[in-house]
Design goal:
single chain; 221 residues; mainly alpha; 79% helix; 0% strand; globular; disordered C terminus
């Protein structure tokens, strides 16, 4: 009976992760890319590669994520990394299929505020679902989660800070108008992520487990 309950719980977590990942891939391709909005974090860097070098984000994401996943193996454990690998692999598959086969177009270039709002809500919800499922949707999510646990800062706040850095780089190739609307999307996503991950959970403490692990690692040296 206990094994059955654990199996159902694991299947539910996997379903949440896959749905969140699908939501991210759908939003990044059909809203951000199709309406010339960029994005923060590693996805923003991958979109930068798409706009400037023509490299598919499905490839760039893997190149950026793998080193961070190896770091997460040490601090977050194998289960977390396994869930993240599933999310990253699913994102690569979902985005690649949409990029190649999807004929669905969401043209909101005449209404960029709406595009930014939808992007923020959907990406925030998708990333939050993956985190609630026990994984991360990418390397930047992992870094944000680690920093959040280490410093006791809301994970959505860390997302916003990291994304703004990437968006500053976007000014080299993106018009100011699109960049500012992307900032709007990032801020909305940050709040949605915080809401999704904290709903029904106690507030983040200021002395997290990660901090203890870091201290132990320093003592060894």
């Amino acid at each position: 009976m206990r094994k059955h309950k654990n199996g159902v719980h694991a299947l539910l977590r996997l379903t949440v992760i896959l749905f969140g990942t699908f939501l991210l891939a759908f939003t990044y391709y059909h809203i951000n890319y199709q309406n010339h909005l960029t994005e923060g974090g590693f996805v923003g860097l991958s979109l930068l590669g798409k706009y400037v070098l023509g490299i598919s984000p499905s490839i760039t994401i893997l190149v950026l994520d793998i080193p961070v996943l190896l770091i997460a193996m040490f601090y977050k454990g194998k289960t977390f990394v396994c869930h993240t690998f599933i999310s990253v692999g699913a994102f690569t598959l979902f985005y690649g299929l949409m990029e190649r086969y999807s004929g669905f177009v969401i043209n909101l270039q005449d209404n960029l505020p709406l595009a930014a709002l939808l992007s923020g809500i959907l990406t925030g919800l998708g990333a939050g679902m993956v985190l609630r499922g026990g994984g991360a949707s990418g390397g930047d999510d992992i870094l944000s989660l680690l920093i959040s646990e280490w410093k006791g800062i809301k994970v959505g706040t860390v997302f916003i800070i990291m994304d703004v850095v990437v968006l500053a780089l976007s000014l080299f190739y993106m018009p100011l108008k699109e960049t500012m609307y992307t900032v709007m999307a990032v801020v909305v996503a940050g709040y949605v992520i915080t809401f999704t991950t904290s709903l029904g959970r106690p507030k983040l403490v200021k002395v997290p487990k990660l901090q203890k692990k870091l201290g132990q690692a320093q003592d060894v040296h």
